[in-house]
């Protein structure tokens, strides 16, 4: 994966925006950059800053150690942002509701359900609108965040918002500490209105002080109610949305005391109630992060700076959270404290010593290092004139010295590592040196492209993924939604290329276990010798099949190992060559980008090298349209031969000489049975040893082990095989096990949506009715396991690949007595799949889960 952008630009301009997204794989997303903070604008005597747009809904965010989708350069606004709980993010831009196919099928085949269309809301007003909003599910109301055009105006014009605001005020006074009266739907409607209006102002029309006053009246009534302080998961979701509403309405200055009460009320007893923890975090990632853009808020803090003390105390008193999944609370308190220091005047004077105290009492490295990094980064960005006082003037250098102490100069490469031994550093250096010759022989270049900069490179290697996520973005300005990234801009004479990566927790066959070492280094070489111009220029045509494909191909071919994922994909014939030629970072998932990029590059180099070299001749002069024409003009002429080649490839013709580690798995509850399927290719040697790691600290040297896990979850199993010639090969794969406990609840806002390794509990239907679900399977998913368990009654499980499943429309089923059902299906392509529970008798309390 590559990121091509000037490092000085990324670092100096970081945090120019307001998204609440972490620079991690779970939380990276795009956000619109905005102008300088009010304090900076005041200092410049010209305030042109505009407030960031209100936040969208909280949504699910995947977290993976895969290379992930290669993205365009990370916007500086996304560095150092407030953290969200793992697996969640905040929507910052409208997107179409999904799934369209499921909606159409639902209309045709599903039983009657309450209607949820924009017209249902836009056609109503007054009491009818209030009744419909409160009669809708929260998932239905959340779909309104994405309306546009005429629908946006009909639903969210000010008169509609006033109606809902007045209803909110009427109910808030009698808030019961839960959503039994459907008050949450009213709050979600108001939040959605502010969000939609900010993105569709011309369609919705203006909002004025009348609406602000009405919303404030509702907020005041809610915060005065007795139950708003209840510590429970029933209160948490309502309280969280109400707190964010103070930010959406941009009246944060009115609620400093409320924010303080929420933060001061938190203690570790809250940790038993994740939704209450999220409510506490809502204060930190929404109003106390974003409100610094609001002059009224800055004035309120100037008059009463005690909220700054509250933030400092929270950061200092809850460092125990930093080694737990709730670390985001403590980090966000440090984030907000440091950002407040950038408000200037007496606010800065008050905050400075508190920020310094957090920095001086928090180690840079170790389990608590993330509090230091985020606090220091934001102090540097928002109060940079005081960087000497804080000790953060050269924060990247300071972090590098503390976290990447091991250095080896390897010709034009400098390797900076967290925990590589001298022998490991030498191994990495030798691998990179050898790769140079392999690359030049592969692409047949004529030397470096004239006029491009960056002939020296730093390779930064973190010892694990957690440290990569914590430190790399603050040092190198890279996105961390990946398994490594190369950051360079060959058009900038002041830029020095950097490849950032980390060591895997299991053996994956890379030198010194540095994951993607050779893939990332290929990106560097490709940019120096093949691709003229910066990242934007390079990606001006669909050439990702080459950019990522050649990096994958070189990584495996140079190391003499088999790309087992590509071999599996070859057997599926999922894509035509002409389709892969059109790969972009926008239209391709990880499967289409990496294994299919590998296959396309390998095929073209083996079968049509003249086309490859003709393409590169254009790319080296900056003629990307000409290079694109070389393969685009081929049309479908190679598709049939590519398809035939895939058969031979999958059958073994593309396996590396020597051993290839392969295995199958069978899961029963918490126990996995592993079956060795490794092969030896083009060698007289034979396999002599097998070594397994199970992802939980356990290992085995049996050929076909059986392993039981202590708890449910998804683990990485890795097999390393060695042959009689001493050559080894390794392959990892994930395995998901259960111990009778339900998988986590699916986080998609639609309650009929299932997902990866998650469940929908407490399902119920009366006899003769169907409970419908759908799941979207990404490309590369080969099997899907669907289960139902628990509860009472009798329910059969049905699956259909093409339309809503039922007893009369299914391709797989499980019809055991009772509610315990399981089915596993083989999947061949990405897309929506449909599942249902049919009530043979009344059933209730049933959990439906999907694993893939």
Notes on the structure:
By secondary structure, the chain is of the alpha+beta class. The protein folds into 4 domains: 111-347; 407-653, Glutaredoxin (3-Layer(aba) Sandwich); 658-737, Immunoglobulin-like (Sandwich); 758-851, Sandwich (Jelly Rolls), CATH 2.60.120. The chain has a 6-stranded mixed β-sheet. Strand 4 (406-410) and strand 5 (413-417) form a beta hairpin. The chain is globular, with a radius of gyration of 28 Å. The two termini are 25 Å apart. The relative contact order is 0.08. Mean pLDDT is 87; it is low at 3-49, 68-73 and 98-112.
Structure at a glance:
The protein is α+β, with helices and mostly antiparallel strands. The chain has 34 helices and 25 strands. The longest helix has 22 residues, at 422-443.
Classify the beta-strand content into a percent band. 15-25%
Cα distance spanning the termini? 25 Å
Quaternary assembly: single chain
Relevant CATH superfamily of the largest domain = Collagenase ColT, N-terminal domain
The total of beta strands comes to 25
The CATH architecture term of the largest domain is 3-Layer(aba) Sandwich
Model regions low in confidence, pLDDT < 50 over at least 5 residues: 3-49, 68-73, 98-112
Q: Helix/strand-derived class?
A: alpha+beta
* CATH secondary-structure class of the largest domain: Alpha Beta
Main sheet strand line-up: 1-7-8-6-5-4
């Amino acid at each position: 994966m590559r990121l091509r952008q000037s490092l000085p630009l990324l670092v100096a301009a970081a945090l120019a925006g307001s998204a609440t997204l972490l620079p991690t794989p779970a939380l990276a997303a795009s956000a619109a950059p905005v102008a300088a903070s009010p304090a900076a604008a005041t200092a410049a005597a010209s305030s042109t800053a505009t407030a960031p747009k209100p936040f969208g809904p909280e949504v699910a965010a995947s977290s993976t150690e895969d290379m992930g989708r290669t993205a365009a350069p990370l916007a500086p606004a996304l560095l150092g942002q407030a953290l969200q709980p793992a697996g969640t993010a905040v929507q910052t831009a409208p997107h179409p509701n999904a799934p369209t196919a499921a909606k159409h099928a639902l209309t045709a085949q599903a039983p009657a359900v309450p209607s949820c269309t924009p017209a249902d809301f836009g056609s109503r007003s007054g009491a009818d609108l209030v009744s419909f909003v409160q009669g809708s599910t929260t998932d239905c109301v959340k779909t309104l965040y994405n309306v546009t055009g005429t629908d946006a105006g009909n639903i969210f014009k000010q008169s509609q918002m006033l109606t809902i605001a007045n209803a909110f005020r009427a109910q808030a006074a009698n808030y019961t500490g839960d959503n039994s009266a459907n008050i949450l739907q009213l709050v979600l409607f108001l939040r959605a209105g502010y969000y939609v209006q900010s993105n569709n102002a011309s369609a919705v029309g203006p909002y004025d002080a009348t609406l602000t006053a009405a919303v404030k009246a509702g907020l005041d009534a809610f915060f005065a109610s007795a139950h708003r302080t209840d510590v429970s998961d029933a209160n948490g979701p309502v309280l969280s949305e109400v707190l964010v509403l103070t930010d959406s309405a941009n009246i944060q200055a009115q609620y400093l005391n409320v924010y303080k009460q929420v933060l001061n009320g938190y203690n570790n007893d809250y940790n038993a109630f994740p939704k209450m923890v999220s409510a506490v975090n809502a204060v930190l990632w929404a109003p106390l992060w974003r409100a610094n853009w609001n002059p009224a808020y800055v004035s309120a803090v100037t008059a009463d700076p005690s909220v700054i003390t509250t933030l400092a105390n929270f950061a200092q008193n809850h460092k125990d959270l930093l080694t737990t999944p709730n670390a985001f609370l403590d980090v966000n308190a440090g984030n907000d404290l440091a950002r407040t220091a950038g408000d200037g005047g007496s606010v800065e004077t008050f905050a400075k010593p508190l920020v310094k105290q957090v920095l001086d009492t928090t180690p840079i490295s170790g389990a608590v290092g993330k509090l230091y990094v985020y606090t220091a980064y934001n102090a540097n960005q928002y109060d940079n004139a005081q960087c000497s006082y804080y000790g953060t003037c050269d924060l990247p250098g300071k972090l590098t010295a503390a976290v990447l102490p091991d250095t080896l100069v390897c010709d034009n490469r400098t390797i900076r590592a967290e925990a590589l031994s001298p022998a490991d550093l030498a191994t990495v250096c030798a691998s990179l040196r050898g790769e140079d010759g392999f690359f030049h022989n592969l692409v047949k270049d004529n030397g470096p492209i004239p006029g491009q900069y960056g002939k020296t490179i730093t390779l930064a290697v973190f010892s694990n993924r957690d440290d990569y996520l914590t430190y790399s973005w603050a040092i190198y300005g890279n996105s961390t939604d990946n398994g490594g990234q190369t950051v360079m801009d060959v058009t900038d004479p002041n830029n020095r290329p950097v490849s950032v990566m980390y060591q895997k927790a299991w053996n994956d066959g890379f030198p010194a276990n540095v994951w993607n070492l050779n893939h990332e280094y290929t990106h560097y070489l490709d940019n120096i010798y093949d691709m003229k111009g910066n990242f934007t220029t390079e990606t001006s045509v669909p050439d990702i099949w080459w950019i990522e494909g050649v990096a994958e191909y070189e990584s495996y071919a140079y190391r003499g190992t088999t790309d087992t994922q590509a071999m599996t994909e070859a057997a599926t014939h999922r894509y035509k060559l002409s389709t892969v030629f059109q790969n972009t970072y926008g239209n391709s998932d990880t499967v289409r980008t990496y294994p299919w990029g590998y296959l396309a590059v390998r095929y073209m180099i083996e079968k049509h090298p003249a086309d490859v070299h003709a393409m590169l001749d254009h790319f080296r002069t900056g003629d990307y349209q000409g290079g694109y024409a070389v393969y685009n003009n081929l049309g479908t002429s190679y598709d049939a031969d590519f398809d035939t080649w895939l058969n031979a490839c999958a059958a073994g013709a593309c396996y590396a000489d020597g051993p290839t580690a392969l295995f199958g798995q069978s899961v029963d509850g918490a126990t996995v049975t592993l079956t060795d399927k490794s092969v030896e290719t083009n060698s007289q040697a034979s396999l002599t040893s097998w070594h397994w790691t199970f992802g939980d600290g356990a290992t085995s040297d049996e050929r076909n082990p059986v392993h039981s896990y202590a708890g449910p979850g998804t683990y990485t199993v890795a097999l390393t095989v060695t042959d009689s010639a001493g050559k080894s090969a390794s392959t990892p794969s994930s395995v998901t096990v259960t111990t009778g406990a339900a998988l986590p609840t699916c986080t998609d806002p639609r309650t009929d949506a299932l997902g990866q390794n998650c469940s929908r509990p407490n399902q119920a239907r009366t006899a003769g009715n169907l409970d419908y679900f759908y799941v979207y399977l990404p490309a590369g998913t080969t099997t899907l396991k669907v289960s139902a368990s628990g509860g009472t009654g009798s329910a059969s499980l049905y699956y259909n690949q093409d339309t809503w499943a039922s007893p009369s429309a299914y391709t797989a089923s499980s019809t055991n007595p009772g509610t315990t059902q399981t089915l596993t299906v083989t999947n061949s392509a990405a897309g929506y799949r449909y599942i249902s529970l049919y009530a043979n008798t009344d059933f209730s309390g049933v959990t439906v889960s999907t694993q893939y």
